[in-house]
Write a structure and sequence with these properties.
alpha+beta; 3 domains; 5-stranded mixed β-sheet; single chain; 11 helices; Restriction endonuclease subunit S; 21 strands; Adenine-n6-DNA-methyltransferase TaqI, Chain A, domain 2; 4-stranded antiparallel β-sheet
C-alpha cells in the first residue's frame, strides 16, 4: 500500500476569466460534467480553452493522466487521451514513473466511497489535494498492473455491453407502450376542449408561514411517485385554517394530480386513504370528472399520450422554468368517445403501461446486479483476490480458450 503521491504528481485545475481570448481554442477543458460515472477515456470536452486561457488559470496535463472529480461528485475517474486542461472541480494525477494508469483508475473507481469519505466542507464536500495525495492504494509490480488492467478492460467491456443492451430493451418497451397508448387514444378524431371532460383546480397559494407542526398534510411535487400520490416530503397545515380557507382543495379518493412545472412526471392518483383530506401545494393541479359519464382512467390515458404532451409544450410559459396551469389546460383539445369506448381505450392503455412498467422493473434489477458484479470484479482483481490469468478462462492452456 502506497500513498498516491509516491506514484503520481497531484495537479490542481482552474477556470479562466470570461475574456473571449481565453475560450474556444484547441485545448480541451474538462469539468465533472465530462465524466460518465465510470472509468473511461476523456477524448472531448464540452468547452475548450485557448493556450492563453489555459496558462492564465488552469493547467495542462499530458495524455495518459488520470483526472479525478473532487467535488459534485467526488470520485469520478477519467483517463486523458490527449493533452488537457481542467477546472477546479477536478484534480489530475500525472504519473511520476512507470505505472499503468488503467490499473489505478480502476482501483479508484472501485473505492469511490472511500474517496468520498475523505471529502471535507460545510456547503459541499471537496476532496483536497493533500487528501488525494495521501490516499493509499495497492501498488503491485508493473507487469501485474498490466495483466489486471487488461483483464478488467475485457471483462468490464462485456458487462458494460450488457448494461447497454438492457437499457436499450427498456427504452424499446417504453416506446412500444407509448405507441400502443397513442394509437388507442388517437382513433377518435372528434375533439372537444378538455374542460368539457375534466374540471381543473390548482392548489392554493400557501407560504412557509402557513406550515404547522402537525395537522393536514400538504402534498408536494416530491409526493407524486410512480403514478401515485404519497405523503413523501409533505409539510403540515393548521386544520382550522384549512377548513376556513382551503376546504375546497381537500383531496378525495380517486382524484388525479399533475404538476404544472417543467418537471411534470405525468398524472398521479389518490389511492391511499392516508392522503384523502390533504391539500396540494401551489403548482399541483387537481383533476376531477366534469360529467358523470367520464372514465378517469381514460383521462389518464389521454394525459399520458403524445397528443397531450405536444399541446402542452406549445402552451407552456416561462423563460427559465416553464409551467402551465388550469388556463392552459382548458385550451387543450381531447377526443371524447362513448363510455364503452373510453373503457376500451383505458384498458388497452393500462395493459401497455403495465407491460412497460414490468419490463422496466426487471431491466433495472438486472442492471443493478450488473453494476454490483462490475464493482465486485474490479475490487477483487485490483486487490489480488484471484489470479486474473486464469479467472476468465484465458491462457489456461497454450492455444486453448475455455
Amino acid at each position: 500500500m502506497l500513498p498516491l503521491r509516491r506514484l503520481f504528481s497531484v495537479i490542481n485545475g482552474g477556470t479562466p476569466t470570461s475574456d473571449p481570448e481565453n475560450w474556444g481554442g484547441e485545448v480541451p477543458w474538462a469539468t465533472p460534467a465530462d465524466f460518465d460515472g465510470r472509468l473511461s477515456q476523456i477524448t472531448t470536452t464540452r468547452r475548450t480553452l485557448t493556450p492563453t486561457g489555459a496558462r492564465s488559470a488552469s493547467a495542462i496535463v499530458p495524455s495518459g493522466s488520470l483526472l479525478v472529480s473532487t467535488r459534485a461528485p467526488i470520485g469520478y475517474i477519467g483517463i486523458t487521451s490527449t493533452a488537457m486542461a481542467f477546472n477546479q472541480g477536478c484534480r489530475a494525477l500525472v504519473p511520476s514513473g512507470a505505472v499503468d494508469v488503467r490499473f489505478f483508475g480502476y482501483q479508484l473507481e472501485a473505492r469511490q466511497l472511500d474517496l468520498q469519505a475523505e471529502g471535507l466542507g460545510t456547503t459541499f464536500l471537496e476532496l483536497s489535494s493533500d487528501k488525494l495525495a495521501s490516499f493509499r492504494v495497492v501498488a503491485p509490480p508493473l507487469g501485474e498492473q498490466r495483466r489486471i488492467a487488461d483483464f478488467l478492460d475485457a471483462e468490464t467491456a462485456r458487462i458494460d455491453e450488457l448494461i447497454h443492451l438492457y437499457g436499450r430493451l427498456s427504452k424499446l418497451a417504453s416506446e412500444r407502450s407509448q405507441r400502443v397508448l397513442d394509437e388507442a387514444v388517437g382513433q377518435h378524431t372528434d375533439l372537444v376542449p378538455l374542460r368539457y371532460i375534466v374540471r381543473f383546480r390548482e392548489g392554493p397559494g400557501i407560504m412557509a408561514a402557513d406550515f404547522h407542526p402537525v395537522g393536514v398534510p400538504l402534498i408536494r411535487i416530491a409526493g407524486l411517485k410512480q403514478g401515485k400520490v404519497t405523503l413523501n416530503g409533505c409539510n403540515f397545515l393548521d386544520p382550522e385554517k384549512v377548513d376556513r380557507q382551503w376546504s375546497q382543495f381537500r383531496l378525495r379518493m380517486g382524484d388525479r394530480l399533475i404538476s404544472g412545472s417543467a418537471t411534470m412526471g405525468g398524472v398521479s392518483v389518490v389511492q391511499d386513504p392516508a392522503v384523502v383530506g390533504s391539500v396540494p401545494y401551489t403548482g399541483l393541479i387537481i383533476l376531477r370528472p366534469a360529467r358523470a359519464d367520464i372514465d378517469m382512467e381514460y383521462v389518464e390515458a389521454f394525459l399520458r399520450s403524445s397528443s397531450f404532451s405536444r399541446q402542452i409544450d406549445l402552451l407552456k410559459t416561462g423563460a427559465t422554468m416553464q409551467h402551465f396551469g388550469p388556463t392552459h389546460l382548458s385550451q387543450v383539445k381531447a377526443p371524447l368517445p362513448s363510455p364503452d369506448e373510453q373503457r376500451r381505450v383505458a384498458t388497452s392503455a393500462g395493459e401497455a403501461l403495465h407491460h412497460a412498467s414490468r419490463c422496466n422493473r426487471l431491466t433495472k434489477h438486472q442492471v443493478a446486479l450488473l453494476h454490483e458484479r462490475r464493482q465486485a470484479l474490479i475490487t477483487a482483481a485490483v486487490t489480488g483476490q484471484f489470479d486474473v490469468t486464469t479467472a476468465s478462462g484465458r491462457n489456461v492452456t497454450e492455444g486453448v480458450s475455455v
